[in-house]
């Protein structure tokens, strides 16, 4: 592909990986796939195939073989042919069970089918190696405590083997959920940044509704970039769209909420691109935040805003944060392969009860500030209580209230409509 | 220090770290230390202080501060001022409990005392940060299963804080166990290699008695190096001398056994240096083998022999190896910061029942070979049964038999002499 691309930052490995078969060769590839041993993917595997196919994980060209998996687990990076390192902190691997391993046998290539059996891709020159789940979990999360959402969803039920190889996707992966138009590939994002004449792109990763504290931070970042001399900084508002844990706000609700934030003028549509980052969520703190940053390099962002406790959550079995909340930004600033990305640490915003708006926290008058956590925000929305004026734009807040109302209605009617 | 050093391979960071106070300043340093808040070290901490003081961990200049600890845990490497990476896979940290943390308070410098209270060192510009034991264990060992020897010895009983800083040791650390003359520092080893005119140094790390299979491998490595054109390859036979698990053969017995191997002519004293590597053992497989290799770079070795399942052991709670036995050599070949070291993979030797000697295993006549594991060897020695002729030189074997006999005598008499 010789597509035009934003020249702000080079993709990892120098070229954006594109693993979608060109239209002219798709029929032949499908015919070939029909005859190959078949491996069935879980929903989360399809999300990873999507991530790989569009080059978010460049220079990776498919599910990891063992030499990539080991580098990822031990060094959070991959050696490039040039001798340098690309960051790669999460194992992007495909697990298969004994039956699938037997079915593949010594075949060099296999077909990958989706959860409903539809053919999705071919994986070439495959390598099958043991899936040591305990070691993978310990080295990725820094704990093996039961109750890690991604582990419960995608690792515990998965097979005891990993199959790596070069991926060729039969056609662009779509979800047909009414949100596909938000799913811009790294190439499409680079094209869009070029079209808008961006001279700086700052990415904001999130998996929660946008409140006015987030907006303050994003607008302030733009102001600082203008002060630094950039003429046209563009914000990539980049909600994560893959697997999330059960109590996170679902993607369609979040996308509607983000739309309202732009409609209500809290963020400027002229200088903001809202798009979906198709990756699943690991909740692996300092290890995962590197992935979040690295993928945005490939999408053309040269500035990355890192929050407090990024990709963190409560410890699943102890009453504490799973990660030290400062480790994410520290690890990000040290990570091999991320040297070319400008890391912008999050300034903490809270509700200023005097100014009656979200404002950057000032320790000197800490008694004036109210911290509204995600849990507290959800509790407000669930109980129908209004947050303080100025916490979130009214249109965005209504989306959340309606969502939690719909849940309660569902919850109330489910037992009555259940059949035994 | 401008000491002469072997030019075969540069120490990590370019210069060998030496943290032992020069003789002229020792009295003043001791006087200063007397007045500082004091931290008491466990025996294993003293071993690490020794390792740090002599520069085995160059460029590290003391127990890790948090920015070094995080790089070690996540990337198994440390960023150098030049922008490059030095390998550093094991956290070299000093744990303190709440009481010690309170005692240190805001003092910039602290004194370190040994287990018996004797002053050993000063730690300067200290930083105290949380010791998240679960995360440290998971990321270092890839498991949190109970029963890891180093964890039980040195982490579980240790405090919930880590204290990092720049180390200054009051005088060279000695053990007065009759083996100190074997404890050559990296500088002393480099000097010795120079003195012998070595043009290649190949290191062999071990924590077990040397049998004729090991000797075959070492002699064969020398032969290969000569074939490659080196004129004077020197073997560094480098048993680990710090903490080992209870069922490993103790250091004094191993040193006596190694002496017999040289006396009996199995290894050539002219081209072999036997010295003690003062590090404690983690049994952390692929993570630890990097440390074993990296420390030998600092000691001037430019070739490193890596075994099957290096630094491995059985899983503490499951009936399997804790690590995939091939991962050690694979990870070593990929590890950031070890590019300049030549890795020589171990060739498997076994007892050839036809030739009646240890020989390299030939898969084509596998039925002729007998594998004698460490466990089997210990069982032979314990039960007084002789291993097959040619397994180990008679002098070396006698050392082991005598050791296990002494254990049994002890075991038999202990109950009778015990007082209640």
Architecture overview:
2 copies of one chain form a homodimer. By secondary structure, chain A is α/β, with parallel strands linked by helices. The first copy, chain A, folds into 3 domains: 25-169, Sulfate adenylyltransferase (Roll), CATH 3.10.400; 180-346, 3-Layer(aba) Sandwich (Rossmann fold); 347-415, no CATH class. Chain A is built from 13 helices and 15 strands. In chain A, the strands form 4 sheets. A 5-stranded mixed sheet of chain A has the order 1-5-6-7-4. A 5-stranded parallel sheet of chain A has the order 10-9-8-11-12, sandwiched between helices. A 3-stranded antiparallel sheet of chain A has the order 14-13-15. Chain A starts with 25 loop residues before the first helix and ends with a helix. Residues 412-420 of chain A have low confidence and may be disordered.
What distinguishing features does this structure have?
homodimer, 420 residues, alpha/beta, Sulfate adenylyltransferase, Rossmann fold, 3 domains, 5-stranded mixed β-sheet, 5-stranded parallel β-sheet, 13 helices, 17% strand, globular
Mean pLDDT of chain A: 94
Identify the quaternary structure here.
Answer: homodimer
Q: How many helical elements of chain A?
A: 13
Level of helix content of chain A?
25-40%
Question: Low-confidence stretches of chain A at least 5 residues in length (pLDDT < 50)?
Answer: 412-420
Enzyme class (chains A, B): transferase
Protein name (chains A, B): sulfate adenylyltransferase
InterPro entries (chains A, B): ATP-Sase_PUA-like_dom (IPR025980), PUA-like_sf (IPR015947), Rossmann-like_a/b/a_fold (IPR014729), Sulfurylase_cat_dom (IPR024951), Sulphate_adenylyltransferase (IPR002650)
Keywords (chains A, B): ATP-binding, Chloroplast, Nucleotide-binding, Nucleotidyltransferase, Plastid, Transferase, Transit peptide
């Amino acid at each position: 592909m010789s597509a035009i691309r934003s020249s702000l930052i080079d993709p990892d490995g120098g070229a954006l990986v594109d693993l979608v078969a060109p239209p002219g060769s798709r029929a032949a590839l499908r015919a070939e796939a029909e005859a190959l041993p078949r491996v069935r993917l879980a929903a989360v595997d399809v999300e990873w195939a999507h991530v790989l196919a569009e080059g978010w994980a460049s220079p990776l060209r498919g599910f990891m073989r063992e030499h990539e998996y080991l580098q990822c687990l031990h060094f959070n990076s991959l050696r490039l042919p040039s001798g340098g390192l690309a960051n790669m902190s999460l194992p992007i691997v495909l697990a298969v069970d004994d039956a699938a391993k037997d079915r593949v046998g010594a075949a060099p290539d296999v077909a990958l089918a989706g959860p409903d059996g539809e053919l999705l891709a071919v994986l070439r020159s495959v390598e099958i190696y043991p899936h040591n789940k305990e070691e993978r979990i310990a080295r990725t999360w820094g704990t093996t405590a039961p109750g890690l959402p991604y582990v419960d969803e995608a690792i515990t039920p998965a097979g005891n083997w990993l199959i790596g190889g070069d991926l060729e996707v039969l056609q662009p992966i779509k979800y047909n959920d009414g949100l596909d138009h938000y799913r811009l590939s790294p190439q499409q994002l680079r094209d869009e940044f070029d079209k808008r004449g961006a001279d700086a792109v700052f990415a904001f990763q999130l998996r929660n509704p946008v409140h006015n504290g987030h907006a303050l931070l994003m607008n302030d970042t733009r102001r600082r970039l203008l002060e630094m001399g950039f003429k046209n900084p563009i914000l990539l508002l980049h909600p994560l769209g893959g697997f999330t844990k059960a109590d996170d706000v679902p993607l369609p609700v979040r996308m509607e909420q983000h739309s309202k934030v732009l409609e209500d003028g809290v963020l400027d549509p002229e200088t903001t691109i809202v798009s979906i980052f198709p990756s699943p969520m690991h909740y692996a703190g300092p290890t995962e935040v590197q992935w979040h940053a690295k993928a945005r390099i490939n999408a053309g962002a040269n500035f990355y805003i890192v929050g407090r406790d990024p990709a963190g959550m409560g410890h699943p079995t102890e009453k504490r944060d799973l990660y030290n909340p400062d480790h994410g930004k520290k690890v990000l600033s040290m990570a091999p392969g991320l040297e070319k990305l400008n890391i912008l640490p999050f300034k903490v915003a809270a509700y200023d009860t005097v100014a009656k708006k979200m404002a950057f926290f000032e320790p000197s008058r800490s008694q004036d500030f109210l911290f509204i956590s995600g849990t507290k925000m959800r509790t407000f929305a669930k109980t129908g209580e209004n947050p303080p004026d100025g916490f979130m734009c009214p249109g965005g807040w209504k989306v959340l209230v309606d969502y939690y109302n719909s849940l309660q209605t569902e919850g109330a009617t489910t037992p009555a409509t259940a059949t035994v």
